[in-house]
């Protein structure tokens, strides 16, 4: 059996192209399984996985939990709002106490960048990053790129546009790393105030004219404006942002070509994208949701297969 080159999934930056290809190949297999009448397999019946979410999450948390249960793992869900973290306990102490209960794998979402890396160095467990601050969100990028390959084939030399709040987005950074590994051409389009410094050093081009950018691309990944991470105003108001950078029928009709439309959610309808575009034939947003379970099953399975457990191949 092929193996990943890593023992944890801390970020796309630590992966090789061969890792991504292996994850996609495995996800295809699991996607077929979860579309069967009986969706569960007993692959990880001897493994206990803890989901530690120190930030609110709906889609990612449910997707991970479904993936784990589809694989037959025992699942423990942790909420920081009702934990000893509120009493001042450190992240490492919290996790070590959980590991003392014989938990084998941890899925971590945390507001501080680098938290998964810290745990990987200070705990004896496999760590999967479910989002660390504005740093990375590797499984989201994997499911985005997997969804693109299903529709576009090999992403080498395909033109992929990312529109929205690039500055505060862990999804944007992980997607840029993944798309670069897969050989895609990448452009971003957003207000200058939301462009990270030195972003062009990641082989990314900036196109402020949204119509030119849409005419250039094969697919556009629309990101949410993350006001919860903003300490100041980065643009005048939602209406102006929507007029300049929001995807609507006027802009899409203007480009006179079919492009794929993605969005990682949650969606601010009427700000970065309108309901008509979300529900259009070009939208593959619901495909992303379905693929999220398959990708996370693949990641968990492949990482678990590197641990000292008896893993049954399906």
Helix-strand blueprint:
Elements lengths: L16 H18 L13 E6 L5 H12 L3 E6 L11 H9 L5 E6 L4 H8 L3 E7 L5 H15 L6 E5 L6 H12 L3 E5 L15 E2 L3 H7 L2 E4 L15 H8 L3 H7 L4 E3 L12 H4 L6 H20 L10
Parallel strand pairs: 1-2, 1-3, 3-4, 5-6, 5-8, 6-7, 8-9
Characterization of the model:
- The chain is an alpha/beta fold and 314 residues long.
- The protein folds into two domains: 140 residues, Aspartate/ornithine carbamoyltransferase (Rossmann fold), CATH 3.40.50; 152 residues, Aspartate/ornithine carbamoyltransferase (Rossmann fold, 3-Layer(aba) Sandwich), CATH 3.40.50.1370.
- Helix content is 38%, strand content 14%.
- The strands form two sheets. Strands 7-6-5-8-9 form a five-stranded parallel β-sheet, sandwiched between helices. A four-stranded parallel β-sheet has the order 2-1-3-4, sandwiched between helices.
- β5, α6 and β6 form a beta-alpha-beta unit.
- α1 crosses α11.
- The protein is globular and about 55 Å long.
- The model has no long low-confidence stretch (mean pLDDT 90).
Computed CA radius of gyration, to the nearest angstrom: 19 Å
Principal-axis shape equals: globular
Largest beta-sheet details: 5 strands, parallel
Overall number of strands: 9
The CATH superfamily name of the largest domain is Aspartate/ornithine carbamoyltransferase
Count of individual domains: 2
Report the CATH architecture of the largest domain.
3-Layer(aba) Sandwich
Strand order of the largest sheet: 7-6-5-8-9
């Amino acid at each position: 059996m092929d193996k990943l080159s890593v023992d944890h999934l801390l970020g796309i930056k630590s992966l090789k192209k061969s890792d991504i290809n292996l994850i996609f190949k495995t996800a295809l297999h699991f996607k077929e399984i979860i579309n069967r009448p009986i969706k569960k397999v007993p692959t990880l019946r001897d493994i206990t996985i803890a989901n530690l979410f120190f930030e609110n999450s709906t889609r990612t948390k449910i997707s991970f939990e479904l993936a784990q249960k589809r694989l037959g793992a025992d699942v423990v869900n942790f909420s920081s709002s009702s934990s000893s973290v509120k009493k001042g306990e450190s992240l490492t102490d919290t996790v070590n106490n959980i590991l003392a209960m014989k938990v084998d794998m941890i899925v971590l979402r945390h507001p501080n960048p680098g938290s998964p890396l810290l745990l990987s160095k200070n705990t004896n467990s496999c760590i999967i990053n479910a989002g660390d601050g504005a740093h990375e969100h590797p499984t989201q990028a994997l499911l985005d790129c997997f969804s693109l390959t299903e529709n576009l084939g090999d992403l080498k030399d395909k033109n992929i546009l990312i529109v929205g709040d690039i500055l505060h987005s862990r999804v944007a950074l992980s997607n840029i790393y993944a798309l670069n590994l897969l050989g895609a051409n990448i452009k971003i389009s957003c207000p200058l105030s939301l462009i990270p410094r030195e972003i062009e050093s990641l082989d990314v081009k900036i196109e402020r004219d949204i119509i030119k950018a849409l005419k250039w691309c094969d697919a556009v990944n629309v990101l949410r404006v993350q006001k919860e991470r903003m300490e100041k105003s980065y643009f005048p108001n939602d209406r102006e942002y929507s007029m300049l950078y929001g995807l609507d029928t006027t802009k899409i009709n203007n480009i006179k070509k079919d492009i794929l439309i993605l969005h990682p959610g949650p969606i601010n309808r009427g700000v970065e994208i309108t309901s008509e575009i979300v529900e259009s034939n070009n939208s593959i947003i619901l495909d992303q949701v379905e693929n999220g379970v398959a990708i996370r099953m693949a990641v968990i399975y492949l990482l678990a297969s590197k641990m000292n457990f008896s893993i049954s191949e399906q």
